[in-house]
Amino acid sequence: MTWGTDRIIRNGLIACMLLTAGFSQELYAQGNVSQWVKAYIGGKGKDQKAFSSLMQHNPSADVVKEVAAYVKDTNNTTFEYAVFLVKKIEKRVTDKQARTSLVRSLLDCALKQDAQLSKSALRAMTIFEKTCFTDGIKEDIRLIAAHYPSGRQEAMLLLGYVGESGDISYLNGLGRYTSLSKQDKYYRQLALARLNDGDAVQELCAQIKEKKLNDEVVMNIVPDLIYTRNKKIFDLLVQEILNDTPNCLSANNDSQQLILCAYRIMEQLSGKIVGFPVQTDRSGEIAGDYAAALEQARKWIVSTKLEYSINTNYY
Which residues constitute the domain of residue 271? Predict the structure, then answer.
């Protein structure tokens, strides 16, 4: 009799525990978006349940709103995972106003006077289209370029991307009232070229012509030149596809044989020029046969006679 009573009590306890656990999970699933944001960002990414709930929550506009509120709250001190969260939800957010709010949140992080946070937030802003940058956002980017040494280079490049013709004189004038390092001046030059400043473009073109194309140049300098989206600079890069001198390392680490630098240039030009025939895979390498891709690219160069358009809508 006692054994039977114990069994009934035990089964009742188990049922109660299961019910409580299920109820708890349901509460978490239906929980407050603000609490999830605080738990995930404030907990430095440790609360994966909160993260999972945020990723699954619809509408995503709720998450955008709470991220903005968290970043603006002066009581909060941890923002690294706010940047990470924005990058994760960005693709799910299609509303222009909401996307602009994400850019604003990133910029507010960049203004927190934390060097690493400023850099990562400004870099994250590059995934957004130009239309997400309001006049107020642009003005704060100028502020960072002028007064925040830790984020200056990233801010100047962003200004080159979203700025206007008036920003040419602004960037040129930076050195008059703030000290610029050699690297700062290089990034300013890139930003000015993106804004189609004649002097900056001419200087970069002269530097390209002086350099011997090799692996170091292709991997470290060509990406910077691609950023400029400048026709004169792109013409010089496109013409290098016709160069038959093997002077770059193969992607195969087991091979010491040099390959044409044209392959690496084609990979970086893919998607940047409208109608450029070379496609790349997710890793950024040429999709399909390399020799066939080279032949296609060279035929395209001959047929277009360097008359082409550059996609400038993205960073």
Answer: 200-304
Q: Which of helix, strand or coil describes residue 286? A: strand
Over the chain, what is the mean pLDDT? Answer: 90
Mean pLDDT of 105-118: 95
d(CA 180, CA 170) in angstroms, rounded, equals: 14
pLDDT for the residue numbered 254? 78
Domain boundary (82, 97, 132) is at 132
**So what's the pLDDT on residue 113?**
84
Rounded CA-CA distance 137/144 in Å is 11
Check: pTM over 0.85? Answer yes or no.
yes
CB within 8 Å of 83: residues ≥ 6 apart: 106, 109, 117, 120, 121, 124
- 132, 165, 183 — which closes off a domain? 132
C-alpha distances in Å from residue 129, one per residue of 84, 96, 158:
18, 10, 11
* Structural domain count of the chain: 2
Cα gap 234→272, rounded to integer Å? 10
